[in-house]
Amino acid sequence: MDQPSSFEDQLSALLPRLRRFACALSRDPGDADDLTQATIERALKSREQWQTGTRLDSWCYRIMRNLWIDTARSRSRKDAREVPEEEGLNVGEDPRDAMEAAVDLKRIMEAMTRLPDEQREVVALILVEGFGYREVSEMLGIPIGTVSSRLVRGRTALLAMVGEQ
Amino acid sequence: MTDDEKFFAWLDGELEPKEASEMEARVAANPQLQRLAEQHRALGAQLRGAFDPIAAAPVPERLRSAVRRPANVVDFAAAKRARSMPSLPQWAAMAATLVLGVLLGTQVPQQGPAPVQIQGGKLYAASALNTALNTELASAPTGDVRIGLTFRDQAGEICRSFTGSAGSGLACRESSRWLLKGLFAAPEGEGSNYRMAAGMDPNLAALVESTMSGDPFDAAQEKAARNRQWQ
User: Fold this and answer.
1) Across the interface, do A49 and B155 touch by the CB < 8 Å criterion?
2) Which residues of B touch A37 (CB under 8 A)?
3) pLDDT computed for residue B93 by the predictor
4) Are A59 and A131 found together in one domain?
5) I need a surface site. Which of A33, A54, A115, B115 has the fewest CB within 10 A?
6) Residue A38: Cβ within 10 Å count
7) E strands along chain A, which residues?
8) Full domain range(s) for residue A141
9) Residue B217: pLDDT over 60
10) How far apart are CA B63 and CA A123, in angstroms?
């Protein structure tokens, strides 16, 4: 396995995944990139706190999630104002023959925005980011049973929302 | 684990082999469960289909450059801090000496259980101090221990500074407990009135400054953090 040489290289390699998680958390593309930038800055500033040999990705996700919940108050005001616009997302070229897929994409993202924060973060970390229950329990500082029950509620609600149309 | 949770844990590959094969047999015998499993597998695929393009897209320049830009400054600050701050074991020893002198010493009549516990060479808040750290808000003080600042440290844990009648200190979360990072005795013969007039102990202020990452919490953030059990 080729190990990236520097902390910055490893952080750079994580950027695409961090942006993806930021999008799941923040529901708004502009906010997501702001959140990603704040996470990078915090990670660089705290780099000596990261223990070599432990997972940098879990550590960065944790920083991002904490930054996110600490700004909960100003965020909820903004959320109430408008429905997020997927059009602003920088997702690269949108192939024209993928109309149907695009509709599904839009529907599921919209459903995600309607989940309560504590369910959305668990759904994103496990079903999108691919972490295990134990890892998420450690990352969020909650018991594994809580991870499991939030995940059940979140994915059940998502399925109901996606299926309702 | 409820049956629901077990079903999904199986779907996510989180069950031990024995439980997994039991669940597999149950699902195989139950068309309803089979359908549910299919629906949720499809849901997972759909979620990844929606979010993966974000990870596949080019990262905006401002984020790529954010990784590079402040590196030298940060290195410098980190190096400086490493030089000027005592190492952790030293802190623990200093704190232990102080806490035993200040909080358990003869000058403070000891009533009730000790406010600290020593475990594995570390000091943790206990009894009244623990309760104050868990429940008190700087914006609405009610007890003898007053909370000063609440903030996150560089590892993302919540820390709170506090002042009691005999001294002040800083505690940070560690696995659902409050680990004491520093304790500073009030100068001999100087009561809490003097301390409040004089503001934060300069040693504590220095410790807070070197520990804090970002800004201290405002009243609403402090309250929200308490509601989340200081996670």
Assistant:
1) yes
2) 62-63, 66
3) 47
4) no
5) A54
6) 18
7) none
8) 98-165
9) yes
10) 25
Residues of B in contact with A69 (CB under 8 A): 224, 228
CB neighbour class for A53 (10 Å; exposed up to 12, middle 13-18, buried from 19)? exposed
Q: Is B44 on the interface with A (CB under 8 A)?
A: yes
Q: pTM of the entire structure?
A: 0.56
- Token pair, residue B126, equals 């206990």
Beta-strand ranges (E) seen in B28-175 are: 116-119, 122-125, 146-153, 158-163, 167-174
Residue A46 lies in a domain: yes
CB proximity B72 to A under 8 Å: no
The answer to whether residues A2 and A67 belong to one domain is: yes
Q: Is the pLDDT of residue A128 over 60?
A: yes
Task: Looking at the complex, report in whole angstroms how far the Cα of residue A129 sits from the nearest Cα belonging to chain B.
Answer: 8
What is the distance in angstroms between the Cα of A78 and the nearest Cα belonging to chain B?
A: 16
The string of pLDDT tens digits covering residues B53-62 is 888 888 888 8
Residues of A in contact with B68 (CB under 8 A): 8
Is the ipTM value over 0.85, yes or no? no
Judged against a pLDDT cut of 70, whether residue B88 lies above it is answered with: no
Contact indicator for B161, B170 with CB cutoff of 8 Å:
yes
Of B55, B64, B156, the CB nearest to A20: B55
Look at B43 and A155 and tell me if their CB atoms are within 8 Å. Answer: yes
Tell whether A75 and A129 lie within a shared domain: no
Among A52, A82, A112, residue at a domain's last position: A82
Q: Which of A46, A64, A119, A135 to mutate to test the interface with B (most CBs of B within 10 A)?
A: A46
CA quadruple A106, A108, A109, A115: dihedral sign: positive
In degrees rounded to 5, what are phi and psi of residue B45?
A: -65, -40
Residue A40 maps to a domain: yes
Interchain CB distance below 8 Å, A20 and B70: no
* Closest CA–CA distance from residue A150 to any residue of chain B (Å): 10
Backbone angles phi, psi at A148, to 5 degrees: -65, -45
Residue of B nearest to A142 (CA): B231
Total number of domains constituting chain A: 2
Mean pLDDT of B8-30: 95
